[in-house]
């Protein structure tokens, strides 16, 4: 009986992995920061719009990654008695040495009104930082 209850749960978990494509060993794989899954979206590679916004998979060499980061500026950064302010920013990050088969991690955050992005290798060494390329309010 326990097996019958456990089986659908295991199948459901396995199905989650099917949603992401397999990592091509000839490509570099860039995972997005898991702490902000709904706030960070992959947007562009070399200024070409992506169809899938959950990750980057790029050929070896130099690339410019563009990502959208939504965050809320706390009222303490705006002024007394103010409502929080939502920002939607495009951040661009350039890195010249993407290697085939390597996994990278892209993390974002913000300080006041300014977003930041950092690219790390699998040893948690910071490789590059992103630059804000335009922000707007809300959606």
Automatic annotation (TrEMBL):
Domain of life of the organism encoding this protein: Bacteria
User: Could you tell me what this protein is called?
Assistant: Lipoprotein
């Amino acid at each position: 009986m326990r097996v019958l209850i456990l089986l659908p749960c295991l199948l459901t978990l396995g199905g989650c992995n099917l949603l992401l494509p397999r990592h091509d060993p000839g490509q570099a794989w860039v995972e997005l920061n898991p702490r902000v899954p709904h706030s960070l979206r992959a947007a562009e590679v070399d200024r070409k719009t992506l169809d899938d916004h959950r990750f980057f998979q790029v050929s070896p060499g130099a690339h410019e990654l563009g990502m959208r980061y939504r965050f809320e500026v706390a009222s303490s950064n705006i002024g007394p008695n103010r409502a929080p302010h939502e920002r939607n920013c495009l951040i661009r990050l350039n890195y010249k040495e993407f290697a085939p088969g390597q996994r990278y991690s892209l993390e974002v955050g913000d300080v006041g009104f300014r977003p930041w992005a950092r690219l790390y290798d699998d040893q948690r060494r910071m490789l590059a930082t992103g630059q804000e390329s335009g922000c707007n309010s809300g959606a």
